[in-house]
Amino acid sequence: xxxxxxxxxxxxxxxxxxxxxxxxxxxxxxxxxxxxxxxxxxxxxxxxxxxxxxxxxxxxxxxxxxxxxxxxxxxxxxxxxxxxxxxxxxxxxxxxxxxxxxxxxxxxxxxxxxxxxxxxxxxxxxxxxxxxxxxxxxxxxxxxxxxxxxxxxxxxxxxxxxxxxxxxxxxxxxxxxxxxxxxxxxxxxxxxxxxxx
Length: 197
Fold this sequence. Notes:
- The protein has 10 helices and 4 strands.
- By secondary structure, it is mainly α.
- The radius of gyration is 17 Å and the shape is globular.
- It has a single domain (34-195), classed as Endonuclease III, domain 1 (Orthogonal Bundle).
- Helix 2 runs antiparallel to helix 6 (98-116), helix 2 (37-50) packs across helix 9 and helix 8 crosses helix 9.
- The strands form 2 sheets. It has a two-stranded antiparallel ribbon.
């Protein structure tokens, strides 16, 4: 079975299963074009935190991340010292991986440096798809790539700017979530909806 017809009769991408939180994320957020710098920064951090884990793990901890990382205020995060990092690593509300927590701080600094040059983070990221969402037409999950030439280019550019945990696969997951690409399967009810968003 490649699609997931839920109790409301809607056909969804099968990856969201029947978990209510995952379904809501799929139905309301995933693939919707996002052009707000601060929200894109948050999503990029969360996608990096997800590396090696499932997205539902991060989704269940997202409110904790928002609380513990000062609402993803980049200026506050950029000022975190060793004591703050150690405190974060003791909190079970997030993924307690030192490299991921430290990368959040360095990524906040890289984000601020990019913006200090007068560049919009959204414009920078959207430039990899020419400013408009790429609309794919995948019929089954197996057809969806893990990375693309665009995600490789984004990864390379972000790393050059000092970002970490931004490999091509993480960048492609980010592009899908932020609506830079529409990878809802063609018979998912959200496929056409996100194109009109």
